[in-house]
Amino acid sequence: MPLQQHERTPPYFFNLLIGVGAYTLxxxxxxxxxxxxxxxxxxxxxxxxxxxxFKSQVEYYLHWSGRYFGTxxxxxxxxxxxxxxLYKFYxxxxxxxxxxxxxxxxxxxxxxxxxxxxxxxxxxxxxxLYLLLTPSPAEGFYFFATYATYQFSNIMTLLLLAILYLxxxxxxxxxxxxxTGIACILIIAIVxxxxxxxxxxxxxxxxxxxxxxNNHIHRSYLLFLFMICTISCLVAVLAPGNYDRMxxxxxxxxxIWSTVYAGFLSLLTFYRWLAxxxxxxxxxxxxxxxxxxxxTKNSQxxxxxxxxxxxxxxxxxxxxxxxxxxSTGERATPRVxxxxxxxxxxxxxxxxxxxxxxxxxxxxxxxxxxxxxPAVAMLLFLLxxxxxxxxxxxxxxxxxxxxxAAYDEALKRRYAAMAASDCQECTVDPLPAIPKSIYFMxxxxxxxxxDFWVNRGFADYWGKDAVHLSAPNPPITDNLxxxxxxxxxxxxxxxxxx
Length: 498
Prior knowledge:
By secondary structure, this protein is mostly helical. It has helices spanning 4-7, 12-31, 40-50, 53-63, 68-73, 84-110, 116-133, 137-142, 144-167, 173-191, 195-211, 216-237, 240-246, 255-295, 306-328, 334-359, 372-386, 391-400, 403-420, 453-461, 479-497; strands spanning 425-428, 466-469. The chain is built from 21 helices and two strands. The termini are far apart. Residues 478-498 are annotated as: Disordered. InterPro entries: DUF6056 (IPR045691).
């Protein structure tokens, strides 16, 4: 079928996707007003106010981790000022930065082929999918020590891909050198953020190098960037601190077990995330993918051998799981899986576009161009977004039930009590509610937990000998239970007023 059929796609599909993106993002932005420091935020703030920058960098590189950029960037911790409002503002900016970097990449890649509304719509689709699937929103967006280490690298990766595209689509030597310099800085920072991002960027640089091995114009730039990436990886991987830390994991360094376990977890990844991704893929393919495939037949961006692209996608996911399993002997934690989920979503849609670029001529069938199919897919996608127990619904429930507000007020009272009290072994009240979207961990109850690392960090930050809760925190409840309880409380308050 001719391309004009695709271009007659009703505009309300794109408007709906933009609306879906706004609906998905809104509660996460609002929750930033209720987030609070937790766990490592306190101990890192104390470290960074007592140790100088270079001393802490050397100490951690030699005895804890090769994440040279991750160690450096957490010094931006607002608790070093201290400023609770800045902590909340950081979260808000982090969310906006994820949105902007996603749009910047999509717009850079496709602005010559799609209208602005369409690039905004596909950005909204990808963001909605990522927020829906991300294993731990709390660690991804609200806990500074983790999002500074893991989410910042995701943002930089998107910007790096946009810069690389610009590098290979300019004939002006000065611009090529400028973009190469920016790409080098981003690669060094991303590699030094965390091991998952290291693998993601290394594999991406390797893919570009292999795919452009016969391209004499770009090959020298790619070789240079790959060399910078390799050196950065060696600096991060060979840090003595990595091996000191592995001594804390007795099941680490088991190659065969790690290989089998990583293979199993890679398969499990598809089981966990593939269904909503497939639904979103139908929407993307019919509204965006096929038109782009027709308009970019000669584009090097999507001309990569499909087999190579599949190997890159599957190999990167496997290596991410393998690296964590080999270095710790354990399953990847939610904060680590946030990065894997990020790669899964964005890597999948690139792979899909490569497949469409290769085989779009086989899909030009009139029935595929009917608005009925994308409408059904859109309905199924909306049902996924509106499911009562997913990340998005949980964010809304945490807001409307009052959980987030109660959590915020309780912690403000706790800080005031700690600042005003002259106690040295202090007992504080438990939280009244746990908003799952923004909660990671709290101090534990009872003096027997005074040496628990979260209790210890909180006590040291406030200059106390010990701190513990007077009673356990309430459990995290599911959304249906929260809504029922909230409804009963509202009815009780209404009857009392009458």
